[in-house]
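Example 5.3 — Glycosyltransferase family 62 protein
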Amino acid sequence: MASKSHLPPPVMAVSRSLRRTNPITYILAAGLCIFFLYFFFADGTSIPRIKNLDAGAKQILSSKDAASNALSPPSLPHIKPKLAEGEVMAPPPVVHYHMNNVTVTGDPIGNRESVLILTPLARFYDGYWDNLVKLSYPHDLISLGFIIPKGREGNLATQQLQERIQKTQAPTNKNRFASITILRQDDEIPVLTSEHERHALSAQKERRAAMSKARNALLFTTLGPTTSWVLWLDSDIVETPASLVQDLASHDKGIIVPNCFQRYYNKDKESMDVRPYDFNSWQDSPTAKGLAEKMGPEEILLEGCIITTSN
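Solution (predicted structure tokens):
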């Protein structure tokens, strides 16, 4: 049996190469650590996507802030890069957006606030586009979004819309819009030709369900980090004040609905006349709220009428 030996504990020797390391190595390592710490914890203030003017929260969107990729936020103007044959577009960059700089005020022009105008478009009316381009709000602060149903009617509306867009967004036109997005619905919805068919009570559930899905898809696809205001403008609105955006924003309300009127031929007066048109875009009355509390899941309330439908 071997006897126990009293030896000192093992000690690891210092590497010869480590003892001779140049001090510059430590400096470079420290610099690299600082770089990684800055990359992961920096707040991105050096990335100027939304700038402040003076001491206020005014916003300005310049051409160099334009989106450089088709997948970038659609509320920013998109500049198509020139790609060689076979070249693949680079993925969009990771960008820090300071949402606290996006203001919503009663002076949208003074604060350079971006406006997103959204329109579900089943038919294209020249009067709609003519009225749109006459808006006095700075067009470089306006982004447009459209959603068009699938089918023959939708194809025609898309073609007519694109023809007007090509003229309005021409490089020679200094009054171009910031960006325009066109979406096509996956499903073909029935087109109700007459006003009577569109407003028939029996068609309201299916019609309004389709409209809600289309509006949600359009909003969630086009809403970007620079958007201050969203204006829903129906495709058959052909006449508004040029100052429509400023007029609505001046009330300084979160949600506001203007009066809508219709021009028509009054047989009694034998002349053209004007009458109130939109009766279903208002807050519910206490009576309507009371009825809604007693309604079943398959019942909908329309202008005081209850319709019972089944799936």
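Remark. Residues 1-19, 43-63 have pLDDT under 50 and may be disordered.
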